[in-house]
Amino acid sequence: MTKKQLEESVAYLKNKGFDAPEIGIVLGTGLGQLVNEIENPIEAHYNHIPYFPLATVEFHTGKLIFGTIAGKKVVVMQGRFHLYEGYDFLDITYPIRVMHQLGIQKLFVSNAAGAINLNFKKGDIMLIEDHINLQGGSPLAFKNVAEFGDRFVDMAEPYDLDMRNKIEKIAKEEGISLKKGVYASVVGPQLETKAEYRMLKILGADAVGMSTVPEVIVANHLRLPIIALSVLTDECDPDNLQPVNIQEIIEIAGNTEPKMIQLFKELIKTI
Ligand code: HPA
Q1: For ligand 1, atom 6, which residue shows the shortest CA distance?
Q2: How far apart are CA 115 and CA 27, in angstroms?
Q3: pTM assigned to the model
Q4: What's the farthest any 2 CA atoms get from each other in the chain?
Q5: What is the pLDDT of residue 56?
Q6: Contact 253, 231 (CB under 8 A)
Q7: 230 near 207, Cβ under 8 Å?
Q8: Could you count the other beta carbons within 10 Å of the beta carbon of residue 38?
């Protein structure tokens, strides 16, 4: 990755009308309905944006969408890149750097995750308060990282406290139950074994998924305040483990998404 590549990606998007978005939003698996809330949308397919990671077949629908939600200019990533698709850490976080360069001042992230904390149930939403990186690498481990910011990025409070407080208040007002906890990221794409679920619990994870942490690390590198929500799509009980059905995960994510959209929309209004 070079600064020149980033500039070319950004120039392409600005030329398409991506004009100074204030908020970037990354939509997770099964969580695409938020795009229906975007007013006056302009779309850019990932495959057409210079230096964006080359999309796999599965990814042909991936696009960046610029527009407004609740009167605020946003840029939304419909579909993200995952390590399990064969991308590397630099690929999957490149769009975060592009959105930052476009001008976003806040980043919202969503994902589908499994519940390790068995007080949490399918269909719950969890506000990520902290994370455990179990993906075996870092999006900041590259030679010229110093050109883009610090190498040794502080991670004492990676999820913005002010937005967390705001969204908790919103959830109360809207009567939406919002859990809070620690998200552990794994590479996937295989699901976890019973022994791995036991390990994750001992480590202190409340939820597990295959994304988000690299994007959060890069947002911290860029000093970009971030908020992240997990939609819990399955219960990871090692003593009573049901085979995971990906179709069901996507369905539960979709059924829960309206609550998540409500939270994000109300949060946008406060920014
Ligand atoms: N692990 C277990 N369950 C899940 C995951 C995961 O990574 N993502 C969504 N549900």
Answers
A1: 209
A2: 19
A3: 0.95
A4: 55
A5: 67
A6: yes
A7: yes
A8: 19
